[in-house]
Amino acid sequence: MDEAHRGAGGSVSLGFAELLLILTPGLPAAIAVLWPIARLRPLLQLVAPWAALPALVLALVPTAEGASWATVGVMTGLRFEVDGVARAFLLVTALLWLVVGAFAARYHRDDPEKSRFLGFFVATMAGNLGLVVAADGLSFYLFFAVMTFAAYGLIVHRSDEEAFRAGRVYIVLAVLGEIAVLTALFMLGAAADGAPGFGTDMARAWGVVSEAGHAEGLAALVVFGFGIKAGLVPLHLWLPLAHPVAPTAASALLSGAMIKGGLLAWIRYLPPEAALPTVGGALIAVGAIATLYGVAVGLAQDDPKTVLAYSSVSQMGFMALGMGLAVRGGAAAPVAILAVVVYAVHHAVAKGALFLSVGVVDRIPLRRVTGRWKTWVLGGAALPALALSGAPGSTGAMSKATLKEAVYDLAPGLNGSLGIVLTAAGVGTTVLLARFLLLLMRRMERREGREATEPGSTERSASFLRATATLVSPWAVLLLVGVAGPWWLPHVVPEVGGAGPSGPLASWATASATVLGGIILACVVARWPAVLLGLQKIRVPAGDLLVPVETLVRRVGQLHGEAWFAGGDLPARALKRGWRLARTVASRLADRDLLLAGGRVVGCVLLLLVVGLAVLLT
Amino acid sequence: MEVMRAAVSAATGWTALPLLVVLSSFVPGLCIMLLREEQHALRTTLNLVGAVLKVLLVGLMLWGVALGVRHEWSFEVLPGFELTLVGDSLALLFVTLSAGLWLVTTIYAVGYLEGSPNRTRFFSFFSLCVTATTGLAMAGDLFTFVLFYEALTWTTYPLIVHRGTKEAVQAGRTYLVYTLTAGAFLMVGALSLNALAGSVDFQAGGMVAPEAVAAAPGAYTLVFLLLLAGVGVKVAFFPLHGWLPVAMVAPAPVSALLHAVAVVKAGAFGLLRLLHSIFGIEVATGLGLAQFVAGLAAVTIIYGSLRALQQDDLKRRLAFSTVSQLSYIALGAALLAPTAHIGGVVHLVHQGIMKITLFFCAGLLSETLHVKKVSEMGGVARRMPLTMLAFSVGALGMIGLPPLAGFASKWYLGIGALDSGAGWAIPVLLVSSALNAAYFLPILRTAWFDDRNAIWQDVGRGRWLEADWKLVVPALVTAALALAAGVFAGAPWSPLGWTRLIVERGVL
Questions:
Q1: ipTM, 2 decimals?
Q2: B122 three-class SS
Q3: For helices B405-419 and B495-504, what crossing angle results, to 10°?
Q4: Does the CB of A217 have a partner CB in chain B at under 8 Å?
Q5: How far is Cα A501 from Cα A506, in angstroms, rounded to an integer?
Q6: DSSP state, B458?
Q7: Mean pLDDT rounded to a whole number for chain B
Q8: Whole-structure pTM over 0.90, yes or no?
Q9: Interchain pair A187, B418: CB under 8 A
Q10: Do B449 and A159 count as a contact with CB atoms less than 8 A apart?
């Protein structure tokens, strides 16, 4: 986009790319706004799954980069722009929304609440696509909030006790996150005299803030606020609850696309120019711990979708680690950002495909399907699993190599210790995904058993072939895209070559070693039931740390839910009640059961923390 | 062309416009009082003609003010006591809000009270109530303000006790005790101010001379506190808020108007005048009084939200939410930065359109399905999706989520707090947002996701809509306004744009 195309007063003449840029958040937003009009809804339901199409085309047209568009009257002026990072994120985000949209249209065909689901679906899509192309702090926050609150509707779609619990945890954390983000935005806005644009404007705002000595605190707010969405340990509590209860299409989007919104926020709001050693170091440490923590807790899960959720926690740890390197600043920081972007793109495709494979297992019509379908589905699911493990020749190997390169460039002192953590987490990921495939197999067998007793219970459609095709083809597309990743990834993010100091050959060797090690470990565990038995006994409830927190909240709530303040508004009364509450809380805190439950989990966490820190400090 | 331009400039600059705006509801109000109960058509026509006429006249004034005209009309009642009506940009912001919302509320009230007794009395006082509101909005000095302020009390009382139940009469008594005491304080304050400063005219940037204040800080502080006690009741500051939740027994359109424009906004507007047109924010800050108001507002913000959290009765929950939200206006007005003033003043409008939407919806639910409690709202959105959609817009706006109107207010308040060095206000705003989320989001969840109540299936369906169109359409209109005010906040004709103009022109 050269200067000649820009009109006076900052307005930009509308080229093809600009038109697509407007439609990227505009089309899904328009559909969502029109949703309440009952008469239009049949039409909207047809269009909604495809609303991400303009975004995908935008990511693919060669003139996309540099396209920008600003509105004057909307809010305090919304700004959109496509840069390299936005383009990479846009490509996978739009792809996922499209593919999953097609999948969902089939998956929810017989759902009586299909209309409600699609309504929230398209609103969430507007938020997610909008934040990818947002060019300033306020626009980003707007779309981020839309995504966050609309996604609630997807999570609680099943509307049962479990779904509401997940929704409650999600929304409480989301509101806390919003508050932290808004505080940060106030401070940045006051520093920049209005909403700071991403890039130089943001860097300048950080300059003002750090002169006042608030930089590290502000950065901590940003990390916390967006870390909730990114599933940063220990803010990940909502993630393992929400994924299994949400419809499969929604979980694929949550893990594949939406949690990346938190990551993108870090990239946007924490420019390397801010140079924040403390927060950067903390992110590195927390990220490293998360990679192991996610695997450890994930291994103690029984639901394949929960396993995948914990795998996401672990994988987001890798990305948080990379972000930590970038946030510390320095000339080589862009290398770390590049590594994070590559990792995000890779993870989005792979994790989306893995979630869809659960959906395929649940819904594939079984009539006339022979025993071989299990092999095909399992074989298909193994592809993204291998990629996530970092198998040689996969996108996983590429992204891990890039990340290691960033570590080598930016934190040579930590090279050894982080290398060990990354390798251990890589092996752990392989074991975790092996467990996922086993659980998936068990789910297939259970489905076959159910089908044998009440045939055709899940399949009401007349056209068997069409049903299979519409359900399986979105999944197959994602698998193909994932497999072809090593070919297209360098085009999306041009600097990816893996030709850094570790070299392609060395990375090939480490990648093979990691995967092989994991597979051997998984086999060993599977081979010796005695070992397995020991592992089988360990069960951590989904949501791990949440359980003691919830118990505490519930007990306090039970004690005073109704009585609290009910009598009147005299401060004296409130004071008296407050005293009584404090006394009971203290006595309840000494409760044996609670201490035991809490102690177990805290013990686990402490152990992991110690291990992580020990590795880091060697 | 020339003729037309001359006509426009004559019409927009007509000095009697403020008087006509006041009369446009006063005259219909008096006429309605003379009608018989069964003259429905004539009564409704009078009401609507008055409401539409007022909107048109206000539109003319807005045009004039945008061109730079200042409308002023005064009339000497007694020697030395003038009734002054001034149409400057700040007054017009409030007048536009009341004129616009009065129109939609009139339509709503016609639908809501269909078939109930004593409608002549109701609509007559309904018009007089708005007359008082527009009058005090355009008051050019403190005496005119006090006059209309008291008139507002008297015209609202019959509306609150309209149902005539024991509860309603009790609520009316509480209301009178609070507001009449406040009125007395206000009167004494105004007289003392007149004695002390020799004038009670409102003036941009403050009427009292800083030197005079420096000479007698104690006396001026006392006057300020007297006046604050006067307006503080209607703005529902923490220990003075008791009347507001009790007044919930009034019919829904009254609550809607009470909480959005009429009574509580009169208090908030009075506070603006007190801080900015009488004392001036610098003087008030110098005396430490602005900080006192800000602190009081902060306490009320949190207290109101906490109390709202415990209410199961939907209208009571909304009432406590009003207590909390009004203090946003007070907080913004009391801080020492133009950005904070923008946030406070624009919230006067934003809170109005959002809260009136919420009350319209609460009235719709209770009128159509007899649902009055939050705990009875399970699945109500499946029966009344449009109503709950409007409610959701209002509720999410109250929490302050972008792109709704509430966010624009919160953004300016937050930036303003930092600009004025009052960083402590940020946690207050954010904790209040969290509490707002805590008492609004469960309502939305219950309504949208819980099980449908089968009894409702076909109860109270309108011919085209889920309920009487006269109730649904006003709610949808105000919800759309709340959305538009947030989405197009950057446009010059939005409430935010107009407020920025007010602050830029130095009217505040």
A1: 0.83
A2: helix
A3: 30
A4: no
A5: 9
A6: T
A7: 88
A8: no
A9: yes
A10: yes
